[in-house]
Amino acid sequence: MKNFYAFQGIVTAISDFNTGQSGEGCFKVFTVENQSGSTVNFIVSPATYFVDHAMVSTGDFVTGYYDGNAPVPLIYPPQYQALVMVKESQNQSVKVSYFNSQLVSSDGQLKLNLSPFTQVLLTNGQVFTGNPANRDLAVIYGAATKSIPAQTVPYRVIVLC
Q1: pLDDT above 90 for 19
Q2: Rg value, the chain, Cα
Q3: Same domain, 124 and 72
Q4: How many domains, the chain?
């Protein structure tokens, strides 16, 4: 099971990442700096899921999600393999986490109440026909209750198979 961690900030640079293989130009490094001046390099691969398939450029406010259990090189700035990237907007919130059988996130902060209008999709945009419980999900939602856990009826649920 992945342990999703997030880092949020402004993209200060985007450059190619050389893997030493024939994938030249397929991998990118997104340098992200947060409000307190900390910097992280996200390695963005063809497998990285971009919410809404958003095009990210320098100056955009983003959140990068990575597996906190994955090994990382001991370098500065830290370098993480981006699993999910979100170009932030004021119109929606995004939560990436493992959701249990009750559709509660692993940190216990968000509970999903799916409606017939909630789109449940795969990362390629196709409809997911199974049960989204007990899976890693990227949840796109608007309003949520102020309870603990907060409850929401999400706009879209992306199953991270």
Answers
A1: no
A2: 16
A3: no
A4: 2
Q: What are 136's strand-pairing partners?
A: 98
Report the CATH number that the domain containing residue 12 is assigned in CATH.
Answer: 2.40.50.140
For residue range 121-140, what is the model confidence (pLDDT) as tens digits? 999 999 999 999 999 999 99
Alpha helices for 86-127 (secondary structure H): none
Residue 126 contacts by C-beta under 8 Å, 6 or more apart in sequence? none
Q: How much is the pLDDT for 22?
A: 66
Q: Quote the pLDDT of residue 24.
A: 74
Domain endpoint, select from 47, 64, 87: 87
Residue 121 CB contacts under 8 Å (≥ 6 apart), including other chains = 127, 128, 156, 157, 158, 159
Q: Do 43 and 76 fall into the same domain?
A: yes
pLDDT per residue as tens digits for the range 57-67: 999 999 999 99
State how far the Cα of 2 lies from the Cα of 97, in Å rounded to an integer.
Answer: 8
DSSP class of 91: T
Q: What is the pLDDT of residues 35-88, one digit of tens each?
A: 999 999 999 999 999 999 999 999 999 999 999 999 888 899 999 999 999 999
Distance CA 72, CA 142 (A): 33
